[in-house]
User: Fold Chorismate synthase from Candidatus Nitrosomarinus catalinensis.
Amino acid sequence: MLPGSSIGQRLVLTSFGESHGRSIGAVLDGCPAGLEIDEKEIQEMLDLRKPGQNIISTQRKEGDVVEIVSGVFRGFTTGAPITMLIWNADQKSKDYENLKTKLRPGHSDYPAMMKYNQFNDHRGGGRFSGRLTATHVMGGAIARKLLKKTLGIKINSFTTQIGKIKMEKEFNEKMSKLIYKNEVRCPEEKTAKKMRESILDAKKKGDSLGGIIESISTNVPVGLGEPIFSSLESDLSKAIFSIPSVKGIEFGSGFRGSELFGSENNDLYAMKRGKIVTKTNNSGGILGGISNGMPITMRIAFKPASSIAQKQDTVDIKNKKDAILQVKGRHDPCVVPRAAPVVDSLVALTIADHALITGTIKPSL
Amino acid sequence: MLPGSSIGQRLVLTSFGESHGRSIGAVLDGCPAGLEIDEKEIQEMLDLRKPGQNIISTQRKEGDVVEIVSGVFRGFTTGAPITMLIWNADQKSKDYENLKTKLRPGHSDYPAMMKYNQFNDHRGGGRFSGRLTATHVMGGAIARKLLKKTLGIKINSFTTQIGKIKMEKEFNEKMSKLIYKNEVRCPEEKTAKKMRESILDAKKKGDSLGGIIESISTNVPVGLGEPIFSSLESDLSKAIFSIPSVKGIEFGSGFRGSELFGSENNDLYAMKRGKIVTKTNNSGGILGGISNGMPITMRIAFKPASSIAQKQDTVDIKNKKDAILQVKGRHDPCVVPRAAPVVDSLVALTIADHALITGTIKPSL
Amino acid sequence: MLPGSSIGQRLVLTSFGESHGRSIGAVLDGCPAGLEIDEKEIQEMLDLRKPGQNIISTQRKEGDVVEIVSGVFRGFTTGAPITMLIWNADQKSKDYENLKTKLRPGHSDYPAMMKYNQFNDHRGGGRFSGRLTATHVMGGAIARKLLKKTLGIKINSFTTQIGKIKMEKEFNEKMSKLIYKNEVRCPEEKTAKKMRESILDAKKKGDSLGGIIESISTNVPVGLGEPIFSSLESDLSKAIFSIPSVKGIEFGSGFRGSELFGSENNDLYAMKRGKIVTKTNNSGGILGGISNGMPITMRIAFKPASSIAQKQDTVDIKNKKDAILQVKGRHDPCVVPRAAPVVDSLVALTIADHALITGTIKPSL
Amino acid sequence: MLPGSSIGQRLVLTSFGESHGRSIGAVLDGCPAGLEIDEKEIQEMLDLRKPGQNIISTQRKEGDVVEIVSGVFRGFTTGAPITMLIWNADQKSKDYENLKTKLRPGHSDYPAMMKYNQFNDHRGGGRFSGRLTATHVMGGAIARKLLKKTLGIKINSFTTQIGKIKMEKEFNEKMSKLIYKNEVRCPEEKTAKKMRESILDAKKKGDSLGGIIESISTNVPVGLGEPIFSSLESDLSKAIFSIPSVKGIEFGSGFRGSELFGSENNDLYAMKRGKIVTKTNNSGGILGGISNGMPITMRIAFKPASSIAQKQDTVDIKNKKDAILQVKGRHDPCVVPRAAPVVDSLVALTIADHALITGTIKPSL
Assistant:
């Protein structure tokens, strides 16, 4: 949706804020009235996204105490837009964008400068920061609660792979409480240890790692999604690609399934306790762009973080000459663990949006 | 965009039609005035999508003669909405949807029936047919011409993998004229032969195959994409997932890149003949959601076609009992080759939309 | 909604066509499945709009036989987009737009030329023709039927004033069948005669007249309208101002009410047969932007038609010099009577849109 | 635009807040980067809207100190969303909505209760308050500055009529500085006095008055407006009807023009110092929905305020019985003077939106 700061059709999230501004926040419009919500619940989810809380990410302090400033009365949503915000700490010293003319490889610097046409247009720096994903989490926390309360939908997003280290077993519901028991948000303890080590290792080398987040939503009712162009896959992918560093998404058997035969990949129907289910779930819970009642599963590829300590060849945009860049400061060697609650949030927002579109969730609880 | 039949923000495609209707077609609104276009050019692209033109797909005759019924005057677009349509052949005999209550695995039958709430609601069958992609091609043909004429952008989408058979070499511009020289739309003759054989083989077995389409757009100007939520990756994926059978998308190094180190995946900047380029292109031409001038590359995963001749376990939705299904009729064992022009079209529509949003293309040529 | 050819949020009308194109038509997306509709019903409403059927308007023949080309199966809507079109008669002789550089006062010529930047850009002429309102009627005919069938809503739009000649009595439901009994669409026979004479008189003098259409919708349920910015008055006025020549709109007591005291203008509540009603209806059925159950009443001001036979001072845009213009051809001396079915249509489309938004009308009948 | 709290297409205002919430505010997305703006300028316009600053309106203290919390850096807009808000004073005592079951005539109570389905759903009270128009003024202040700086556009909205008392002379640019010299915002001193007296008189009687605001925008470039459905009149009226109490709008000669002959109402073109102008301006600066360069003029009808001290017949919604209501507290006997800056703001937002759509204003100053 133009101009680009909003997403959704019946449940609309508008994100605002940059590193330089006084605050970052979100307006969530279209949430039904009568949902019990308070700052504590939103804060919990925000805290899962924050860096500086473990040793594998940066020790940058972000503060991030959320305030609800509209749309909630006596602990219940009123149906009017809900505005939440976080105050940024004093930013005056962050003046480096002005001085840096060496393009940082893998970052948005170059295209943003060209698009916005100004060396010292801070919009580039401010609006592309991973910090902005906090706004998605603010709205997502409410959407998640709405889905849980009205439809019993649960969303579990977790780290399934870091670099080449993959989870060994398949996820099941019982593992959900293990996701946040470790820093990497991998519900397989043994694998989480290896992942942690590889991240620390990369950090020592001044390098970075990427990974894959898997997300599974259960109890999704049949019928969500509006073909042709607002199918569930279209809207989920549109939302997920707003997360910096995301470079790929697949649903169900995805790329792996493209190598199978139809006889191997088709999910056969069966009756199970009076309910229509499929024996396998290669469709990832979505057929023809519409949810079919099976868990909605997706895997999201994150490229390795672009800010590395090693020297890199680059160009100085001021004089158009080759140059060497060495990024200063301490940076996250791996953003994947922090993205898990962000994925949860965007999946929740998209599913809730579609549930409102179909009338599965009413405008008033 | 609700209700679901339109996509785009400045260049909007509205798709209409179903198998049962008299026609299928599209309205393209927002195309600048002064673009030279005629039915022949649109027909050429539509013909690339049609089945029945080679032996690896169904011999179903689709007719598909396109007519432009508004928006073009004396061979030039007027700036008003352009409506194009194809008349469906007489459909009266196609009455089987009424009788089929056995759910077809992998198809949209079940969720569509539940969503639209009617056994004999033909909307399900009619609006989910792959035939509907002809409407995307109608609009895409115009968008492609617009991009080529105003910005010199070229889009090449081709089959890079069928089942487990992959192209051996990397694509380069010289190979583009080879794409449509064979039925599988693979620009590597040797591999195309193997692919063709495997498809015929699957067909004999009453089975089906999936594959991967790769798409590369060159000459894309820097600066397209509107963060945060209308980034180029968000809008491209939203469009691509409207193609039936698509189950995954990745940009640049995608899922492979998620296993690399930052030092391996970052694209380093360099000057090349006075222009800023990157030495590698793992970003796929998009950084921070904005085009950076390098080719925009993506790979799209197609699941194997759901209609196979083999018997399949399923459920009869009328009496909620297990049943056996054997899909009659002749079906495409592999939809991937036919999807190449559809991918071209959706990529063109999305890039043109963003070029109009940024003002890179003016409303009047 | 950009780019400008569509209106609506859940029920979306996309209008296409110009004088020069082969056809004019509309795509109506979002209409629920299961509504019985055929070409005859749409034709009836179109015929009410056509000129050349009485002596007070132009004897231009428009043809206007509507075809439904998608979205209807066996006489029922399928829920998919409904496309309707009318083929234009051969337009090749209508080449005069190329030659006219003298600006026609009151027409869109000048701003359209400046906007679209071309003397011979036919878009101006083609897309501003009153003929385009036929597309609103196509969609409106379906919306009207939908409202009548699901909610029993009736919409009556009629000529209440031509020039200075006003209706004497207030409209009541019994008069509805008189609206189309005369050429001016005034349900008061005596007044209609005077109106007719004044129009013929103006025609003889080579001049034109304007007027006022009143529209009354009954049986509208309480609760339609989405504050703050999608209130019922906002959306109704947005739609109505798309009709060429409309220059004003008022709801309920409107401008007259602005001269009253609150004690005179407030509608007092009362119980009437167990239902909450108001004793007067100065609010025009809308309070706080939401329907309150009382009839929705509005009056719409139409300026006198701009094309008059008399000589007029003007400017020749080619050489920027003063000039004299005498518009040739026969033109409608008064467009008001023809606009009645167009007002009906736009009111129906807006109310139906809001009924779908609130869920008062379900997506499937 | 759904869900209802946002308006605009390239320049989007999202309004949030209710009486009960901690704050009311707005997010303005799409404002170009590089515009100099600060809280003081926004505060000035907000103060013009505040009650309690003169004796003809309520002595309710609203506070209303605005803070910009995002989108502005070192005094310049960054191009990212601009969020502004005002903190509400402690609202805990405002609990009366819970207790009032007698419907207030002329208010949104009844339809809002029915729409939102709850007696004690505070959304009704909170979101319909005239106080919410402060959010339109926040965004409008920025839009006004943008228009003035980039295109030299001036907008003057003033009270032209209160009850039956009308301005005697026509407005001209020199009178603009007189608008805010008196409490009623009428630039004709003599008339302003009479208006003031009639308002005080109505107040004594426990009654209220309505009126008409006229708005004139000069220096508007030719070519703004997107036919068919996003014409300038459509979008201006859509925005203006969001102001509580507005019941009518007319452009140019409006309803009066509907009584004229074409020969009287047509604006004849002429050359004036090398520029194309019209000798009269009955079109109100808009032809065919597009601006023609002449001043954009409109008149807006406000009904008399619904809250009056006199006893009124009504219904008690709890027991569906007739009742008598006497509204307590002190209320504005006339909202018209306070609405002038709100009209300014909504006109500015709409014109700026269209200027951005056409590219007349660039995304970066």
In short: Chain B has one domain: 3-358. Chain B touches chain D at residues 2, 358-359, 362-363 (CB under 8 Å). Residues 3-358 of chain B form a domain with the Chorismate synthase, AroC fold fold (CATH 3.60.150.10). Residues 253 and 282 of chain B are 5 Å apart (CA to CA).
